[in-house]
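call fold(seq) -> tokens
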Amino acid sequence: MTARLEAALLVLACAACSGADPVPEGTALTIDGVPILASDVETVAATLRLWMPGTGRDTSRAYALEAGFLPRAIAWHDFPEGVVQARAKATAAMAMLHSKVAFEDVQRQFSEVPVPATPRSYRRGELDPILGAATFGLPAGSVPDPIEATFGIVIARVDLPLPDDGPRQDEAILSMIVMFYDPSLVDAEYRIERGRERMLNAKYVERTPGAFAWLPAAVRAKLPDPPR
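ret:
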């Protein structure tokens, strides 16, 4: 777990006890009470603009939210016990990797998706933007910290960037250890449809002025009119 995430969780826990506002500093908006940090959205949005020059800022932010941070926040809200369990598994898996246990052995022990006979190639559009931003552009052999993606926690190894590393990279061969927040999220079509429905019926609160402009158009259309 990253230091920033630990700090955010500590703020939430302390606020729950004291009755104070549980929103960490730098929150862009909340969805069903779960904060989404502006800096996280900007990081993924900036990666998208590097990959697709000419993409507007609000368009890239909306994509980062719709395909990444909103469904992740919904999963965190709906499956809190599963999130805790996935984080614990990721910590144990990383400890084994740091102890020089082979990635393939850790993958077979922890991954909740079938392990392919050989690592497969992924195009950037196949991965949710949080996962793509954390892995694409890294050199071969890289294993970044566990990535809290939309559907679960992923430990990824970059086996081969294609055609080379750098921010414009569009494809890579990856090996992944996946720990889902909930078994229902294994089915990609289900989790996409479920996330879309929940997004349209969630409660949003704008915490950074103007952040509602980042939301996908379908979500903005469902928001109540702001007070005049």
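The beta strands are 27-31, 34-37, 120-123, 147-148, 152-162, 171-180, 204-206.
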